[in-house]
Amino acid sequence: MMLSVLAPSVLLLITDLVIGDYRLFKLINQDITNPVLDFACTYVSPALFSVFYVLTLVALFFSLNSMSKATGIVSITNGALSYAIGSLIKLLVQRPRPELLATARVISEARIIGFWHTSDFSFPSTTMMLAFGLTLPVLLEKRRIGTILAAFSYFIGFAVVYTGFHFPLDVAAGALFSSFITFWINLMKQPVANFLARRRLVNLK
Q: What is the pLDDT of residues 102-149, one digit of tens each?
């Protein structure tokens, strides 16, 4: 299941390598722009993900199933860790954002809208890493809900390129980095579920 959800990221990476990072960025950021996409990418994409994720998290934590609760805990942990590792990689790579490259005339233009900007560095997209880090543990446990979250995560990935804050390579790398981190963090799920189950049994006595 996780491999099928990662397929768009791999396809994006291959397309990026074939077409070129800036040419693909220009296509998304400048060539397909319209007011509907402006509004959707600036406001709708973060709102959709945030609301649906919070509702999912509430459902997981109010569940009587210890594995569901453990999934919620691992999801939050994975999201935070993915964001932190992504931020560290940014400091190591120090790839400037499209806006800075356009100002320095390294690239011809970058159309900037919205409020995504948080630092001067672009690679990888920590926004994508956070979204995927929160999503993937849910996907591995709750397939339908996780698939919806994954779709919203990709919408966010598209949005950060469309609004001019990231290159497509940043987004593809962010998704793949988060997947690698998830592989290891998800190993915590069963021990956490066992701990919660034992605690519940003790409380019932």
A: 666 666 777 888 776 667 888 999 999 999 999 999 998 888 999 999
Q: DSSP string spanning 61-76?
A: HT-S-HHHHHHHHHHH
Residue 104 covered by a domain? yes
Q: Are 33 and 111 in contact (CB under 8 A)?
A: yes
Number of Cβ atoms within 10 Å of the Cβ of 1: 12
User: H helices of 20-142, where?
Assistant: 21-26, 35-39, 45-61, 66-93, 98-103, 126-141
**Could you give the C-alpha distances from 132 to 42, 63, 96, 196, 199, in angstroms and in order?**
19, 23, 22, 25, 30
> Is 171 inside a domain boundary?
yes
Asked, for residue 25, whether it belongs to a domain, the answer is no
- Domain span at 49: 2-14+36-200
Q: What is the CATH number of the domain that holds 109?
A: 1.20.144
**Domain tally for the chain?**
1
pLDDT for position 204:
38
Place of tokens 């290159």: 167
Distance CA 126, CA 175 (A): 9
Cα Rg of the chain (Å, integer): 18
- Its pTM stands at 0.88
Q: For residue 57, how far is the Cα from the chain centroid?
A: 16
Q: Is residue 165 part of a domain?
A: yes
User: For 154-195, what is each residue's pLDDT tens digit?
Assistant: 999 999 999 988 999 999 999 999 999 998 998 888 888 888
